[in-house]
Design goal:
Blueprint lengths: L3 E7 L9 E5 L27 H8 L3 E6 L33 H8 L5 E6 L5 H7 L2 E4 L19 E6 L2 H11 L5 H4 L7 E5 L5 H14 L2 E5 L4 H20 L10 H10 L4 H21 L5 E5 L8 H5 L12 H6 L3 E6 L8 E6 L5 H16 L2
Parallel strand pairs: 2-3, 2-4, 7-8, 7-9
Antiparallel strand pairs: 1-3, 4-6, 5-6, 5-10, 9-11, 10-11
Length: about 375
């Protein structure tokens, strides 16, 4: 099963009966190498200690089922990996599972585990969640420990969970996040009003978002969010620089997939002027999101602007960079953002509803998502 790099069952207590969780192969598990699903790191020594999030899960009674596959070195949106295999999209096996946390989303959507951990630097939890029809949360930047997570240094990356229901997601967050308030995360009256952000997305998906808001009976209004496109471009510049610093030494070694080698070569061309400009955009966009959230509880919009393309289309050169146009900006700003499966008319596939909250208000985002989950499940 290409959702997993390796399968095992580990818990702090051999008799534990807690929920099962899988761990993305960019997160350390003691005794296993962290390879990033790449030949370049295949000979890495086993990790000497658990990542902090892994230790917290074990201490909370979770059972670790194995390490999940991923887009090589977490630098891609398709999830296609010719070295370790491409995880199956449980919604449609002909379509990409999304990257980079493809195996984690696939494992949860295929019901192999109750939950999985992924990482999100430019949409790498929310994108696969939307592709695979599951829930994925990018917490507030810095809310969840990255100790023992690759790459070691990042101003964008967040560790977060995938699940099939909000209740399990809340329990996973409580396990990995100190002081996470489960009562607040389950509070039914967590929101009174939402803002629907006007974005460029397929009409059926935009209509699905509007329909979902109506079904919740929450007060809503449509807003424009300044500098979304600029924030997308700035997020690309930052991730390019930081990933090039982390893994650029493998370019030209023959140990990378062709797509990753090309992306890292291009990333290395990012200039200091581009990075400086990205910093200015980061500050302006973060302030714009903060202002928008002064008068509403959460922002909602599609997770992805379109349904995932087929694997064949991706292999034949169809660009996927626009997949992250609505999710990457919130890595730049650091706000918590969750993707919830979204029914759309005329399709058996579900899209994603993205819910963005105030910094530190991860619990409120979960509570609002639970409200949407209940409304969408109503007959």
């Amino acid at each position: 099963m290409t959702a997993f790099i390796s399968e095992f069952m580990s818990s702090a207590d051999a008799s534990a009966q807690g929920p099962t969780i899988a761990i993305k192969d960019s997160i350390d598990i003691a005794g296993y190498p962290t390879t990033g699903a790449s030949r370049a790191l295949a000979d890495s020594p086993p990790a000497s200690a658990h990542a902090e999030v892994v230790q917290r899960l074990l201490d909370a009674g979770w059972r670790i089922a194995g390490k999940t596959n991923m887009h090589e070195l977490a630098f891609g949106m398709t999830g296609i990996n010719d070295y370790t295999g491409t995880p199956v999209n449980p919604q449609d096996a002909t379509r990409i599972p999304g990257g980079s946390s493809s195996g984690s989303a696939s494992a949860v959507g295929s019901k192999l585990v109750d939950a999985a951990l992924g990482t999100d630097t430019g949409g790498s939890i929310r994108g696969p969640a939307a592709c695979c029809g599951v829930i994925g949360l990018k917490p507030t930047f810095g809310r969840v420990s990255r100790h023992g997570v690759a790459p070691r240094e990042s101003t964008l990356d967040c560790v977060g969970p995938f699940t099939r229901d909000i209740a399990t997601l809340v329990e996973a967050m409580a396990a990995i996040t100190p002081a996470f308030d489960t009562a607040a995360a389950k509070r039914a009256s967590a929101a009174n009003n939402v803002a629907i952000v006007s974005v460029d997305a397929d009409a059926a998906i935009r209509q699905g978002v509007e329909r979902a808001v109506r079904m919740t009976q929450l007060a809503s209004r449509v807003i424009e969010l300044d500098a979304m496109k600029d924030a997308f471009e700035a997020g690309l510049a930052v991730i390019n620089v930081e990933t090039s610093r982390a893994f650029g030494q493998f370019v030209g070694t023959g140990k990378l997939g062709a797509d990753l080698d090309a992306r890292l070569r291009a990333a290395a061309q990012t200039t200091q002027a581009q990075l400086d400009a990205a910093g200015r955009v980061r500050r302006a966009f973060t302030a714009a999101v903060d202002r928008a959230l002064e008068s509403v509880d959460v922002l909602v919009m599609p997770t992805l602007p379109a349904l995932p393309i087929t694997i064949d289309a991706a292999r034949n050169g169809t660009s996927v960079i626009a997949m992250s146009s609505l999710i990457r900006p919130f890595n730049l700003s650091g706000h918590p953002a969750l993707s919830l499966p979204l029914p759309i008319e005329g399709s058996a596939l579900k899209a994603g509803l993205q819910i963005v909250g105030r910094k530190g208000a991860d619990e409120q985002v979960c509570a609002v998502a639970a409200h949407f989950e209940a409304a969408l499940a109503a007959p």
